[in-house]
TrEMBL record:
This is Schlafen AlbA-2 domain-containing protein. Residues 17-70 form the Schlafen AlbA-2 domain. InterPro entries: Schlafen_AlbA_2_dom, Schlafen_AlbA_2_dom_sf. It comes from the Bacteria. It comes from Algibacter lectus.
Length: 80
């Protein structure tokens, strides 16, 4: 089993995004356009790294990797 905290810590130790890792400050999936944009990111990561795991970390500042978290309303809407 993957230790999720350790995985996130390891991913955030590097400030650059790459073919298996992307970070987002927030996602807006409350409407069709937001869902489409999020799915576009999922597909891009999947296509760029088809034989391994890929990760999107949500709730992180792009510039300094500061964890800002997500609110509960956002997690409740996460059923796509």
């Amino acid at each position: 089993m993957i230790n999720k905290r350790l995985l996130i810590k390891h991913l955030l130790a590097h400030n650059d995004e790459n073919s298996f890792y992307d970070k987002k400050r927030k996602i807006d999936i409350g409407h069709k356009e937001g869902k489409a944009k999020f799915l576009k990111h999922v597909c891009a990561l999947s296509n760029s790294n088809p034989k391994n795991n890929s990760y999107i970390v949500i709730g992180v500042e792009d510039e300094d990797n500061k964890i800002i978290g997500v609110d509960f309303l956002m997690t409740a809407k996460f059923r796509i």
